[in-house]
């Protein structure tokens, strides 16, 4: 079975350990906190930030619309500049990819 599969009209599903399915919407803005944490966990250089995301209840809407360098530093307490840059670059890539997926290439 592929890591990702999609039933007709259903969101993508990611198969995790133990054959448990985590539903991941194809639109990151619609992700709940758990889905955002799953995405962070799947990003090698961001996986250690997943607890911050969960602790601050960041869903996809908040993550993609309100997270900035200042928010990461002052509100979430992520003081390492390099870590903030990596996170912001990953968010921009995610926004770009989801825009392409929704509007075609």
Automatic annotation (TrEMBL):
Q: Name one Pfam family in it.
A: SAM_1
| Origin: domain of life | Eukaryota
PROSITE patterns linked to this entry:
SAM_DOMAIN (PS50105)
Coiled-coil features, chain-numbered ranges: none
Concerning InterPro entries, the annotation shows: SAM, SAM/pointed_sf
- Name the chain's protein: SAM domain-containing protein
Output the Gene3D superfamilies linked to this UniProt entry.
Transcription Factor, Ets-1 (1.10.150.50)
**Native source organism of the sequence:** Smittium simulii
């Amino acid at each position: 079975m592929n890591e990702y599969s999609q039933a007709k009209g259903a969101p993508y599903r990611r198969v995790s350990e133990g054959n448990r399915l985590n539903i991941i919407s194809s639109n990151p803005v619609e992700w709940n906190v758990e889905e955002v944490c799953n995405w962070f966990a799947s990003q090698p250089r961001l996986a250690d930030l997943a607890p911050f995301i969960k602790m601050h209840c960041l869903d996809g809407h908040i993550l993609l619309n309100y997270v900035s360098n200042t928010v990461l530093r002052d509100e979430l307490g992520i003081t390492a500049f390099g870590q903030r840059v990596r996170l912001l670059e990953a968010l921009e890539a995610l926004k770009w990819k989801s825009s392409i997926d929704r509007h075609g290439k």
